[in-house]
Please model this.
Amino acid sequence: MKNGMINVALIGHKFMGKAHSHAYRDVGMFFDLDAKPCMKVLCGVGDDLASTAEAYGWERSEPDWAKVVADPEVDLVDICTPDRQHREIALAAARNGKHVFCEKPLALDLAEAREMYQCAQANHVVHMVNFVYRGIPALQLARQLIDEGRIGRIYQFKGLYQQDFALSPDFPFVWRMDKAQAGFGILADKGSHVIDLARYLAGEITQVACATDIFIRSRPLPDGGGMREVSTADAAVFIATFAGGGLGVFELSNTCAGSKNALTLEISGSLGTIRFDLERLNELELYLAEDPEATRGFRKIMVTAPGHPFMGNWWPEGHVLGWEHGFIHQVREMLQAIAQGRPASPSFLDGMRCQAVVEALAAADRDRGWQSVGEAGPGFLD
Amino acid sequence: MKNGMINVALIGHKFMGKAHSHAYRDVGMFFDLDAKPCMKVLCGVGDDLASTAEAYGWERSEPDWAKVVADPEVDLVDICTPDRQHREIALAAARNGKHVFCEKPLALDLAEAREMYQCAQANHVVHMVNFVYRGIPALQLARQLIDEGRIGRIYQFKGLYQQDFALSPDFPFVWRMDKAQAGFGILADKGSHVIDLARYLAGEITQVACATDIFIRSRPLPDGGGMREVSTADAAVFIATFAGGGLGVFELSNTCAGSKNALTLEISGSLGTIRFDLERLNELELYLAEDPEATRGFRKIMVTAPGHPFMGNWWPEGHVLGWEHGFIHQVREMLQAIAQGRPASPSFLDGMRCQAVVEALAAADRDRGWQSVGEAGPGFLD
Amino acid sequence: MKNGMINVALIGHKFMGKAHSHAYRDVGMFFDLDAKPCMKVLCGVGDDLASTAEAYGWERSEPDWAKVVADPEVDLVDICTPDRQHREIALAAARNGKHVFCEKPLALDLAEAREMYQCAQANHVVHMVNFVYRGIPALQLARQLIDEGRIGRIYQFKGLYQQDFALSPDFPFVWRMDKAQAGFGILADKGSHVIDLARYLAGEITQVACATDIFIRSRPLPDGGGMREVSTADAAVFIATFAGGGLGVFELSNTCAGSKNALTLEISGSLGTIRFDLERLNELELYLAEDPEATRGFRKIMVTAPGHPFMGNWWPEGHVLGWEHGFIHQVREMLQAIAQGRPASPSFLDGMRCQAVVEALAAADRDRGWQSVGEAGPGFLD
Amino acid sequence: MKNGMINVALIGHKFMGKAHSHAYRDVGMFFDLDAKPCMKVLCGVGDDLASTAEAYGWERSEPDWAKVVADPEVDLVDICTPDRQHREIALAAARNGKHVFCEKPLALDLAEAREMYQCAQANHVVHMVNFVYRGIPALQLARQLIDEGRIGRIYQFKGLYQQDFALSPDFPFVWRMDKAQAGFGILADKGSHVIDLARYLAGEITQVACATDIFIRSRPLPDGGGMREVSTADAAVFIATFAGGGLGVFELSNTCAGSKNALTLEISGSLGTIRFDLERLNELELYLAEDPEATRGFRKIMVTAPGHPFMGNWWPEGHVLGWEHGFIHQVREMLQAIAQGRPASPSFLDGMRCQAVVEALAAADRDRGWQSVGEAGPGFLD
Model:
């Protein structure tokens, strides 16, 4: 960080690379930052790298990530690659003293995640895993309300994350359907989002039981070269217990017809209930048992008022935000943490603890039994 | 059955007794029946029995159920007592050649349920268990659509049944909170409704994992005589596999703030998805993947059109029904089955199979492991 | 009224006759009445009269209404005939000292309505017009909240009543499409419901502007005898001012695709807003501006709690009511008023004032100008 | 336009200036443009102009708009000033051969709007008025469906635009509350949005009746210098007829408690109905009467599929957009029109026709009578 600028290198220029690029591009227009991002270099694989870099606003492009993480000019390495590359890049970056912002899931397994966390700590860099939905105003409001005790002690947590992109048997085989490349598949991909939100809102998960299924057993290769057997689950269901008491129930799916990006939560406690639906991310539903009987009911809060999280920096009340805004808020957190010399949140430790739950789920599914989350649960490390 | 009349005796005059009384009172006004019910005798315990019988339209009242089930005039015995009395009354009635209509859950455990089913079969009486929600037009439409293959092969079934009547720690200790009296508690009470609907819509459940919790450990006795420890669960979560493939996820609660009578279902398959919410029981949501991309979305069907199940007998389209109407439709099924000399549906076998799942859930919860549903699953008996 | 019984004669045995019959049949089961109804005689035209009377629970049937209104045994005459017969029957009944319960709209025009009101008053009988939606718990709650000042001074009232039964050009010509028989058509039929609710919730209407349209100009005769020109409107829109200040906006339609029985209201004031939708009649939405910014939003109140209007007499919380229950509540009001020797509400005066608005609307539509409601507005009579 | 770049000058740096700045900043990242915008100069009044220009990404700032519209380097003048300045700036810009993109309402009155339209035409510049909601994918889909005849001939159009920012009597007096500065007040401000959408979706408005009201008669001056009388309406209601037949009903409010940015539309026709709510702008509801009775209902379309308008350029399905995205789509239209040497849409003619309706409304309100829209209606000009 020089002259109040943080030089950013972004590795990965596909879907997530686009979302992160947009966030760096816009964050300074809406938020006062202690240090502004400078979009130095976009790194990726493919002929479209240079043109993409230009379109997204990066100063230059570079196909070799090793050069990027060694570049003295770079302050912050942002990792948007496929999961299997997270570890190697993050370790190299941290060892070079770069701050690291990594997409979720942090790693392929718990061992990798622990190594990444420990390396980042040892090298005293700021580290953050991009559980982007913590950046949604409605979910930050949910956390505030829970912290204030508005819904009391949490009894039940329900987290569903369902899409239907893979519903058609004609949907092609992609790398996420290959267990070797995708690690824990939907448990890691969609599961990590919901697990992180469960941890964020309801605390640590202690035990799990899980079942998964592959509904469409083989799929056409994208190149027309025939069919290939699918080795990762289309859907998963699991139940859980929490460290602070309370029960959890979860459902994940890539083949749930009609669910487009349906991350829905219900958190109920001794005094009230909160509901959220990512397809209507500007709204939060809140029920307060303390309200008088005659006028008691779920309140549909438009989380767009000036006093709501982040909203003072956006548009007038009722002028809704979209999915991409979560990235801006998370990038802001990372940039401010660097500028202020403080840890970022959620950190690699959060990424690691989430990974521990994913791993417990996979074991519970494999063994058809309950599984304890173990060392990464509460009390582990710091 | 004489002169086209079926003489009914109803045992139990509280909540369920009232709902059943109302159904007998109204069914003949809206449906052409092959034999009409004659409301002969109301049986129950308490000083208000005679006045209740009069208010509800019963010819007479009788405190002793043993007399009622032996009364030669009675054709049909309807059992609305606490669960622990179901078995004894049903057995006596069947042995006396009475047709038996019994509230859910059929029995306290699987052994009782089997005995009741076998006794009713052996005595060639019509038997039916009142899973009342099968009588809701929207759920009959759901079954029709599934039978027609509109949502294809079922991949996922979600069933939640949540209320909040017991949320306040001041809510008193009632018999359902005593394990000795309530059997499997919420697993039997709310669980049996959802399990039956899962069986009705998605087929037999084969394996389950389950967790329950008691959030409020002791409650005040209604008579002001201090506190008593609660021994049945406030909430339960479970996951399941189905005989035809597919995953199930379930949540039950008496302490879910804001849920008043929230039985919500989502059944998704290879071609579409169905959603239902008991608090809006006149509606069914349907997503058909076959619809063109541009105009595809969940359809909110008002299940009140003349062609919808039962609705040709009620009011014009859009003139909604209430919760009580399910009872009328189920009573109609029982009366017609008797008049037509055919089995009724859902029968005691359905009640028994449901009980087998409840029992597996209780075992899975106790042992913290997966449990097979066993003999009462598909292929068992009939 | 003898021996605590009120002998009822019901004239009209079609749609409304069925709804009223059901109400008399059920009201005593759910409500403690000071005098119970005795379903004496059903009067109507058609071969099915006797069988209908029996199915609905009437002691006997009688085709000649003149005999019915003169029958010394009859205490209460309930009028469910086509609108054009209301006046003649009501006048005869009142002159014979019968209490009169009349379906809406009270009359074909204001002059008739005034005559009916004055005759009923002069003969000291209890008179009530069945604006049935005042009998919906959610709307009684709305009135309570408004009376308590919870939404402050009313600024805006929106009332829509839309159905789509006449959308298809194949829908046949019925008497309501003939101006000569139907009076003011949709303005009277649907309009009177919405106008009455506007008066009930927001006060007297003072001035109106209105436009109507006939979208389908001719329709097939039901007997297959060709087409007939339609002379009443398919839809109407109007705006209004209120005596207490505030603006109103209204829409009525028989051809609004997808609206099945969509009576929707929004009443907003200086302190809050209320919303209602008849297709979800167990719910009321309430926004209170006084709530803190962070947790402010429309509350979806399930109007099924024990403390909500009428609900202590029905089922447990969350066990929803249907459309027909409004009739039970209105019949109860009429019976109690008779038993207690007090006026019923809404009375023929309400029916007359509603008629004055309907008449002003028709004039405003005809003349394409604003129209004052005139003498039947606030300050008129009593 | 040189070297494939369009040099933009933006006049106005407050709310709308921010939204437009953001659009120019982002449009090139998501859309392939025939010519890219170059953010040359931001013009405005106030000490924060230079810092705002930098934060928003403008090359430089300039307080004098006269210099800006005369600057040879500038290709496109974007007007985000208060309404009363639109005319003068637009005329000067057009006379200097600059393309003009102007916020709505186009002008203070019809005469101004006509002058602006004629001047832009005479100078052969591309002109566009920013009715931003035409840029929302769901509304473009609505238009497509209507053009394809999916809902048939339009019978009814309902358009409401309600907010509650001015609900509190403590909300200060702002320039929009002064008739001298605000022209037709809410009729122009909110009304122009809804009128434009009515024209876009249902065709030209021919006649109107209207009522407005000021609920809070005086408000505190922002500087604490006492109270000032309000001379523009807090709310308005109006009804309308359309050139192609059909009825319209409209409601506008700044004081409708709980409505944050509630622009809701319902367009129903002979074959179906469309509904839209700006607070849930990623959704469109569609009812098709042709669907079979059993499965007919409003479809909640998530307008985020690749084939939906604009959505192929954004995120995967279900990843929702926000309010600001409409500006990006409208800026894209303006830039492409310039690059392609074609007219933009909606043009100043649309702005003028909208103004004609606003003016008719004001006259209808003033005179309490129906008003014809007159020359700006269908058939006028082009």
Summary: The radius of gyration of chain B is 21 Å. The longest strand of chain B covers residues 154-162.
